[in-house]
Design goal:
Number of helices: 2
Strand content: under 5%
Shape: extended
Number of strands: 0
Structural class: mainly alpha
Radius of gyration: 17 Å
Distance between the termini: 23 Å
Length: 96
């Protein structure tokens, strides 16, 4: 399990305390709220508009990440090739 989660101390069910907020955010907003909005949108918008949002959402997220990094709202995880596991940071968008 160390290959999947080196911070978990050998147990895949141990969540590092620094990950609580990120896990809550992902569960509440990225999955639950996003699917609720898709369901609502399918009732009131055309399928083309809903699919357009689906395609543009990753582009919008990458753009917002670049803006947040440019405004230095969060530090970049990619600074000088060193990553501090205790520091909240954003990975810049990339191809790999």
């Amino acid at each position: 399990m160390n290959l999947i989660c080196p911070d978990c101390g050998g147990s895949i069910w141990k969540i590092p305390p620094g990950a609580y907020f990120a896990l809550f955010y992902y569960i509440a907003f990225v999955s639950v709220l996003a699917y609720a909005i898709f369901t609502w949108a399918n009732q009131f918008a055309t399928g083309t508009l809903v699919m357009g949002y689906t395609v543009l959402q990753p582009v919008t997220a990458a753009t917002m990440t670049v803006v947040l990094l440019f405004l230095q709202a969060f530090p970049s995880c990619d600074k000088d090739g060193h990553r501090d596991p205790t520091e909240a940071c954003l990975d810049p968008p990339g191809l790999g």
